[in-house]
Amino acid sequence: MVSPSPLHAQSAAAPRGTVFHRLARARPDYRWWRPVLTLLCAAGIYGVLVLASVVFLFILGFFVPAVAATVDSAVSVHPDLRDPGQLAFLLGAVCLLWPAAVLGVRWGGRRSGGTLSSVTGRLRWQLFPRLLAVAAGLVLAGSAVTLLLPGEVSGEFSGAGAAGGGLLMLLVAVAVVPFQAAAEEYAFRGLLMQVIGSWLRHPAFAILLPVPLFVLGHGYGLVGQIDVAVFAVAAGWLTWRTGGLEAAIALHVVNNLVVLALGAVGLADPNAVDLPLAHLPVSIAVVLAYTLLVLRWFPPAGSHPGPAFSGTAAAG
Q1: How far apart are CA 12 and CA 218, in angstroms?
Q2: How confident is the model at residue 16 (pLDDT cuts 50, 70, 90)?
Q3: Cα separation of 281 and 60, whole Å?
């Protein structure tokens, strides 16, 4: 009988009871420096992927001048998210965080990339229909309320003359946003939470310490930063409490799709540099309502959810 290879062993789920932020320590050969190597590998891989993409687009721009013009505009100080080409480029650059995080964990951490997804070692796809339905209902209801409120903030760069139409912008958003939102969750609620959790046992450190980096990655004013910070804390809490990224991904995908869809039909400004103060309580209420509903469906943190939602209420 042939013994399983190390690679095969890495694909197994963590021992029952392992909480999400401590999964990096589940390997018997864990060393304190391995999370550092994981981060370095992920950063290096991301740099290589971005460079390769830019080189490819640079070469393509010689033959298709419109591509070069789109890339130049997208990397400018004020990109226009109403331009489908610029939107695709910017979202695509974020999407590369996903393979970078997974390969960083695999090569630097010597464990399965699936351990970034959940305590079961994989994404629990069967959870998404219900999560997406709840997120869509709450986000759409919140958006309907905010459309009735005053204080819409205009972006610093108007999208009135953007190339392409709203329909094309919407198609780009539908095609790319699920990968972009998931990539951010894999980087901030997956990779960073598990790196911090490998050193610090209490989940508060893993949940809260990545929040400033996530906020800095979104170029908003103070109100917008508060909104992003609330989302990041809730997403981190949900990831720890449910043992996986699914709940955070679902809310992130729906939120970004609704924002860009409203921008595509002219009901919001996707280039806005801040959130109106009157909209902040509504946005926070949506996030809190989603969090409370999801927590009622999951067993206590650390246990492995079964093939469907648990019907028991969350303990504590």
Answers
A1: 35
A2: low
A3: 45
Cα gap 169→75, rounded to integer Å: 18
Residue 101 CA to residue 116 CA, distance in Å, equals 8
Percentage of the chain beyond pLDDT 70 is 84
Output the CA torsion sign for 213, 286, 154, 262: positive
The residue type of 185 is: E
Q: Which residues pair with 244 in a beta bridge?
A: 118
Cβ contact 79:73 at 8 Å: yes
Phi, psi of 118 (to 5 degrees): -165, 175
Lowest mean pLDDT among 33-37, 75-79, 232-236, 244-248: 75-79
**Alpha-carbon torsion (183, 290, 137, 213), positive or negative:** negative
Once rounded to an integer, what is the mean pLDDT over residues 2-18? 46
String of DSSP letters for 82-100: TSHHHHHHHHHHHHTHHHH
Angle at 199 between CA 197 and CA 203, to 5 degrees: 30
The 10 Å Cβ neighbour count of residue 31 is 10
- CB of 268 within 8 A of CB of 152? yes
Confidence of residue 19 (pLDDT cuts 50, 70, 90): very high
Cα–Cα distances (Å) from 12 to 58, 190, 204, 235, 302, in that order, read 41, 17, 27, 25, 16
The whole-number pLDDT of residue 312 equals: 33
State the angle between helix axes of 34-63 and 97-108 in degrees (0 to 180), rounded to the nearest 10: 140
Max mean pLDDT range (6-10, 151-155, 208-212) = 208-212
Q: Which residue matches tokens 């109403």? A: 82
> 52 with 99: CB under 8 angstroms?
no
